[in-house]
Amino acid sequence: MTLTVAIVGRPNVGKSTLFNRLAGKRLALVDDTPGVTRDRRMAEASLGDLRFRIIDTAGLEDAEPDELGARMQEQTARALEEADVALFLVDAREGVTPLDRDFADRLRRLKTPVIVVANKAEGSAFAGALEAFALGLGDPVAISAEHGEGLDALFQALAPYADRAEAAAPVPDEDKRPLQLAIVGRPNVGKSTLVNRLLGEERMLVGPEPGITRDAIASLWRWHGRAVRLVDTAGMRRRPRIEEKLEQLSVADTLRTIRFAEVVVLVVDATQMLERQDLTIARLVADEGRALVLAVNKWDLIEDKRKALEDLKDTLETSLPQLAGLGAVTISALTGAGVQRLMPAVVAADAAWNKRIPTPRLNRFLADIQERHPPPLVGGRRLKLRFATQVNVRPPTFALFASKPGELPDSYRRYLTNLLREAFDLPGVPIRMMLRKGRNPYAEAK
Ligand code: GDP
To answer: What does each C-alpha distance from 226 to 111, 178, 180, 184, 213 come to in angstroms?
Structure first.
């Protein structure tokens, strides 16, 4: 039996856009004008390795206002009868409207499981995504159907239902979509030596990659069966020369390369450990919210390795607190020593970057730390942290609801972030924490 997924929600929340994206074909007409989509459509769809049928319940857009409620109910009810699970779309930019709440009320009474999807959440349109918690239908998945963002989170939310609908459902195969990896660093730190060492004979050029850097070249390769798409710049592909290169670090090129990547390997030279430019690149990676792995190269040239490691640790702690716990892989690209430890670190960083922490665990954690280390007093009253939930992955992004979010000192927020890192094993991953005013939205919804 094929998993059947209904896309429901009030008009213009982006049902057809999501439908088209999942169906992969331009089956439905999409337009910003209400009234463009007419009929209920059904299509074979896929997301990652999931195969399912989707039903779109658009077609309500042209209904008269007074019959809207009834028609919507009827359409939705019919779709839900056939569906194993419903994607209930709301508009993250507009926030939750009264019509959304009506919808939610009806959905709550049905047996069909519901996944709340906060659409149009591209960039920083999180406000509505947070409001969507208040619908009391579980953690919303923030996506942008139009830009194709957050689809991995949607995949994770849908996957358990696929297992139910079809016992032999294909296991999500990470192998299919290549891991996007970038190797960056100052000139002469050994990037090309490392790339050659990593890829060796297996290197398969897939041609210039438009839009990343002028001379960026992507290589598709397999590491232990896992597909990896690696980007480095053309300057790196020349054979390493003996003489020092006079190339400058191009921050703009580096930034474009970082944006392309999921995991960034920053190569530094152990004999000139963590110079200003190295730290600049590391901060760019953190700012862009990517997963970082530090490769400390030319380790063969270091005599007092213990001292070098201690210095490195100190520098990381003081200069990169936003990536606390970041580990370093010491390598010699020239001799190959330690290089085999690099890709396992990359895969681990990717996993942490994609980690999703269940809301109940997060709130047990929140209750626990407030007991042990209460937030500071403000004007004689203790600030209360009421509720936390993870609103996104890649990087892990948390919303924290507090009584007076504006008054929570930065130091406590950093402290919380670091505890969160430790408790949920997220070393070296950029973590986003958004403070919101309010109480437990689930409690409010009841
Ligand atoms: P890139 O500009 O970052 O691509 O750096 P290259 O790969 O061209 O390397 C610059 C220089 O450092 C070359 O002379 C390499 O042979 C040398 N090099 C690279 N990796 C190592 C290493 O692990 N140990 C030593 N001793 N030299 C290295």
So the answer is: 39, 7, 11, 21, 25
Which tokens sit at 70? Answer: 């009834």
- d(C-alpha 22, C-alpha 50), whole Å: 10
Mutate which of 191, 193, 232 for ligand 1 pocket (most atoms within 8 A of beta carbon): 193
CA of 341 to the centre of ligand 1 (A): 18
For residue 376, the tally of other CB atoms under 10 A from its CB is 12
pLDDT at 430 over 80: yes
CB 179 within 8 A of CB 350: yes
- DSSP assigned state of 239: P
Q: Looking at the whole model, is its pTM more than 0.70? A: no
Cβ neighbours of 182 (radius 10 Å)? 27
Q: Which pLDDT tens digit goes with each residue over 185-207? A: 998 898 888 988 888 755 544 44
**Ligand 1 neighbourhood includes 187 CB (under 6 angstroms):** yes
Q: Looking at ligand 1, which residue's alpha carbon is closest to its atom 6?
A: 190
Please tell me the predicted confidence (pLDDT) of residue 69: 61
